[in-house]
Amino acid sequence: MSVQTRQFSLRPGREERCVVKEGDLDVVRSDIGNFETSPRLPCRVVMNNQTLTIFEDTNGKEIL
C-alpha cells in the first residue's frame, strides 16, 4: 500500500507545528483484488507526534 497527497475535499488542511498535521491523501491499494491498475481511495489523514489516523471520509467518522 502506498499513499500520495492530493486535495479532494473542501476542508482545508490544518497544521500546528510539532503538534498536528491534517490533509487529504490517496491510498493506492495494490494489496486487494486483481485489478489492472490499483484502486486509489481518497482519505483524510491526521498525524500528531504519537499517532497516524486515516479516515475514509472527510467528516472523521470512518477510520480506514
Summary, kept brief:
The chain is mainly beta and about 60 residues long. The protein has no helices and 5 strands. Strand 2 (about 15) and strand 3 form a beta hairpin.
Layout of helices and strands:
Blueprint: E1 2-5, E2 14-16, E3 20-28, E4 40-48, E5 52-55
Antiparallel strand pairs: 1-3, 2-3, 3-4, 4-5
List keywords for this structure.
single chain; 64 residues; mainly beta; five-stranded antiparallel beta sheet; 0% helix
Low-confidence spans: none
**Total individual domains:** 1
Helix content: under 10%
Biggest β-sheet strands, sense, barrel: 5 strands, antiparallel
| Individual helix count | 0
Task: Give the overall pLDDT as a whole number.
Answer: 77
Strand and helix order: EEEEE
Shape: elongated
Structural class: mainly beta
How much is the radius of gyration in Å? 13 Å
For the terminal residues, how far apart are their CA atoms?
13 Å
Number of strands: 5
Amount of beta strand? over 45%
Walk me through what this model shows:
With about 60 residues, the chain is an all-beta fold. About 0% of the residues lie in helices and about 45% in strands. The chain has one domain (about 1-55). Strands 1, 2, 3, 4 and 5 form a five-stranded antiparallel beta sheet that branches.
